[in-house]
Design brief:
The chain folds into 3 domains: 15-113; 156-227, no CATH class; 238-304, no CATH class. It contains 9 helices and 11 strands. The chain has helices at 20-36, 43-55, 60-67, 75-83, 92-101, 115-153, 162-167, 258-268, 281-291; strands spanning 155-156, 175-182, 189-201, 207-213, 225-227, 238-240, 244-246, 249-255, 271-274, 297-299, 303-304. α8 (258-268) links the parallel β8 and β9. α1 packs across α5 and α2 packs across α5. The N and C termini lie far apart (45 Å).
């Protein structure tokens, strides 16, 4: 479905002059519009709808519950995206326009939700959040099984993979395999050969997902890396090396990408953790801190105390 046109002509009351009841009515309409839409698979239209929902006054919890309906939902990406939204860039008109284009019908002008109707709506949203959370757990479990299968079918990576040569780093426990990606519009499965595979795992070394790094972006995806859809990433990581004891304490460095992490490990000998992106640095640090409370932690942006 094709969403998003910010200039869609949809009436939007000026909220600063609205009464609390009117503002509540507008929020009801915004929630109804958002609920009518499926979260886009592509990131850009999803972000635009989040920005529109934010402008409409929709809460972070409700926006997250809606986003969780998407098969590629990433909690870390949602949190960092939602909290980076600045007012005014995209307005609520985008949300209403997308919903109307998709067949949504707004409530008649002047109609107002009663307290009982709002209570029912809140209960329905709570139930939907519960159902979506259960579905997410199922998706993550399936992704973990798929990750384990792809990993087990792959072979050890050599240091001569094009990506490693470009970055001047070796393969620390990586594998080379065949990456598969389903095109949800056509149902066709695309394969990319010679993919460098990096585990995304927990403290117990259980694989939850994989990151694939390709020789180049000259492939069906048009990019040089990919994540396994539905895989759990928040708080999970890939570790390089063993912690070194300095002044009686184990020292660990947390970085974003594999190349940066491998370079730090090469230069320092410190155990280095690949968090995969900036939004996952803090969740990973919290996991490490819980397991090793007195370990000095730092990441490649600033120290973590």
């Amino acid at each position: 479905m094709n969403y998003i046109a910010e200039n869609t002509c949809v009436p939007r009351p000026t909220q600063e002059h609205n009464s609390p009841t009117q503002q509540g009515d507008e929020l009801d309409r915004a929630l109804s519009a958002l609920d009518f839409l499926d979260p886009p698979i592509e990131r850009e239209p999803w972000v635009k709808l989040l920005m529109a929902a934010h402008d409409a006054g929709i809460s972070e919890d409700d926006a997250r519950a809606w986003s969780e309906r998407g098969e590629n939902f990433d909690p870390s990406d949602f949190r960092s995206t939602w909290r980076s939204i600045k007012p005014g860039a995209i307005t609520a008109r985008t949300l209403f326009g997308a919903a109307i284009d998709a067949g949504w019908s707004a409530s008649p002008s002047g109609s107002r939700a009663t307290g009982a109707e709002r209570a029912l709506r809140d209960a329905e949203h709570a139930e939907r959040r519960k159902q979506e959370a259960a579905k997410r757990v199922e998706r993550e479990a399936e992704a973990a099984k798929r990750a384990a299968r792809i990993w087990n079918e792959a072979g050890p990576a050599d240091d001569d993979h094009p990506y490693l040569l470009r970055k001047h780093v070796p393969a620390y426990g990586l594998r080379i395999g065949r990456w598969e990606r389903l095109d949800r519009e056509t149902g066709e499965v695309h394969f990319i050969e010679n993919a460098l595979l990096i585990q995304i795992r927990d403290m117990g070394k259980k694989i939850h997902s994989l990151q694939a790094v390709f020789p180049s972006n000259d492939n069906v995806l048009g990019r040089d890396r990919d994540y396994l859809p539905g895989g759990a990433k928040q708080g999970h990581f890939f570790a390089i090396g063993q912690p070194r004891t300095i002044d009686g304490k184990k020292t660990i460095v947390i970085a974003e990408g594999y190349a940066t992490s491998a370079s730090i490990h090469q230069c320092t000998g410190y155990a280095t953790i690949v968090a995969f992106d900036a939004s996952n640095l803090e969740p990973v640090a919290n996991v490490i801190r819980k397991r090793i409370p007195d370990a000095p932690l730092g990441h490649n942006r600033c120290p973590v105390t």
